[in-house]
Amino acid sequence: MLIDGELCDAASGETFATHNPATGEKIADVPKADRGDAQRAIAAARTAFDEGPWPHMTGPERAEKLRAIAQLIADNASDLSEIESRDGGGTIRKASLADIPGAQSAFEWFAQMAETRPDRLELEGSPFPASENYQRYEPLGVCTGIIPWNFPFIMASWKIAPALAAGNTSVLKPASFTSLSALRLAQLIAEADLLPPGVLNVISGPGGTVGEELAANPLVDKTAFTGSTEVGRRIMQLASGTVKPVTLELGGKSANIVLDDADLDQAAAAVLWGTFMHGGQVCESGTRALVQRSIYDEFVNLLVERAAAISLGDPLDMLTDLGPLVDRSQVETVERYVALGREEVGDPLVGGAKPDDLAAGLDPNAFYRPTIFADVDNKARIAQEEIFGPVLCVIPFDTDDDAVAIANDSIYGLAGGVQSGDLDRAQAVAARMRTGTVWINDYHMLDPKRPFGGYKQSGIGRELGTEGYDIYRQVKHIYVNPETKGRDNHFHYAVLSGNI
Ligand code: NAD
After folding, report:
1. Residue 226 alpha carbon to ligand 1 centre in Å
2. Using CA atoms, how far apart are residues 306 and 300, in angstroms rounded to an integer?
3. Is residue 127 predicted with pLDDT exceeding 90?
4. Considering 84, 283, 284, 463, which one is annotated as catalytic?
5. Phi, psi of 83 (to 5 degrees)
6. Residue among 30, 87, 147, 150 to mutate when testing ligand 1 (max atoms within 8 A of CB)
7. Which residues form the pocket of ligand 1, taking CB atoms under 6 Å from any ligand atom?
8. Segment 175-209, tens digit of pLDDT
9. Is 283 a residue of the active site?
10. CB 312 within 8 A of CB 276
11. 335 catalytically annotated
């Protein structure tokens, strides 16, 4: 772990094991922090903020450090990709093409934000009484980040980079299934001596103790959480004790709408990629495919044929499409939902089982085949609840109005897709979807330059983009009376009239 500039174990010396889900083999013993360790990390971040140079450095000075971290990630990309793949079960293809370069580009983007977003905005003054006015943008203070297991390295960068870029100090807690890549990043940064002590702290440990401390502790000024909606509600409760701002990036059940004028090959690719990437363990996965009735049968046949061809296997092989889920327990969750789907809808058209043809040495109980249920009623639980596995619900619709109504009939509002040959029609549908992102004729196209976040119970606030930087800053208005003597300030009720 990294606390106050020092690489350390938990004070108790306790550890927990982390495993490679593909094979079941133990990879490492990870420090198991407790509340005391979390309090030490928060205290270090507090001191680094209150007394340290970091919040007082200029944006370009901080940007230089962030770019150095981005370079460190690039220099260690192959090592980090392997750690990410082995610890979380995602494929090495995903780790080396998306996760590691994605984190690098997040540091680069927020470096650019620190260089270019102004710290001061001049406001209109007034002649009578004479005044000068401006806004200052200031860091919030100590920002904690709590992240899930599905994209551990990218999620770490989305919490650390904007917080540090804006002049805050940070304490990050990765998920227990996948602590290794964030801990390795902390180690690389500490060994390169890139940051003043306490500016970045990374601690591993259980959500119920360490995570709760990071959300509730009164020395913390902001908590950014990515994870399930259920835990997100708890984070809000904990943060309310000291009225902390929270950013919440929560669950989803996104709709991918296929209109009858879509190119069916392209749309099928977008639906399969949109659902099964990383085994469906993606918050914004398009796990409900809404398909217009006139193309429904043909399109469902295409999906089934192509889903059956997705390859499962060793995640360290560049040719593998899908590795294991993060843990056997996640496979059990998927099995429970597939059993429920059989009751609610009938047998899936493809999948619905663990694979029986894996290479020797791979754990079949950690894998699950891409599964498609057709003719699903949007009210069914498998269409309403986040499964977080490779399960697609296909739902027919008649008109564009129906598609929008079904898409919006969800407690979630994270993302969605529209597949269509008519860009005007697609954009009219996209505008009516109550979600934070819509991809037209594509899916999953995230980029640090573009804001990301949820409507409804998918979250509060935005990460990435300029919004994802500004959310880490306070706004202060300064009013200056240039007359230093003689003005009678009492009772000038013009104050609220808009005329000063
Ligand atoms: P989770 O909510 O179980 O855990 C997320 C993190 O919270 C972990 O670090 C965990 O240790 C911690 N935690 C657990 N209980 C806590 C508590 N009481 N107080 C404080 N922290 C606590 O989620 P998960 O299973 O790791 O990840 C899957 C979920 O994450 C899915 O719901 C998925 O949609 C969501 N997710 C959302 C986004 C997004 O950007 N919207 C991105 C990725 C994942």
Report:
1. 5
2. 10
3. no
4. 283
5. -60, -45
6. 150
7. 146-150, 173, 175-176, 207-208, 211-212, 215, 226-228, 231, 234-235, 249-252, 283, 386, 388, 414, 454, 459
8. 999 999 999 999 999 999 999 999 999 999 999 99
9. yes
10. no
11. no
Which residue bears the tokens 């919490």?
159
Residue type, 327: D
Q: Let me know how long the chain is.
A: 500
Mutate to test the pocket of ligand 1, among 283, 326, 447 (most ligand atoms within 8 A of CB): 283
CA distance 471 to 247: 8
H/E element holding 488? none
Beta bridge partners of 202: 2, 172
Helices (H), 166-251: 180-191, 212-216, 229-240
Structure tokens of 356?
């029986």
C-alpha 453 – ligand 1 centre gap (Å): 15
Burial of 236 (0-12, 13-18, 19+ CB in 10 A): middle
Q: How far is the CA of 207 from the centre of ligand 1 (A)?
A: 9
Residue 499 reports pLDDT greater than 70: no
Proportion of the chain in helix, strand, coil states, percent, rounded to 5? 40, 20, 40
pLDDT surpassing 90 at residue 125: no
CB 83 within 8 A of CB 134: no
CA dihedral 208, 209, 210, 214 (to 10 degrees): 80
Distances (CA, A) of 70 to 63, 106, 162, 331: 10, 8, 13, 34
Do the Cβ atoms of 31 and 40 come closer than 8 Å?
Answer: no
Q: Is 416 helix (H, G, I), strand (E, B) or coil?
A: strand
DSSP letters, 296-330, are HHHHHHHHHHHHTT--B--TTSTT-SB---SSHHH
Please compute the mean of the pLDDT values over residues 421-429 and round it to a whole number: 98
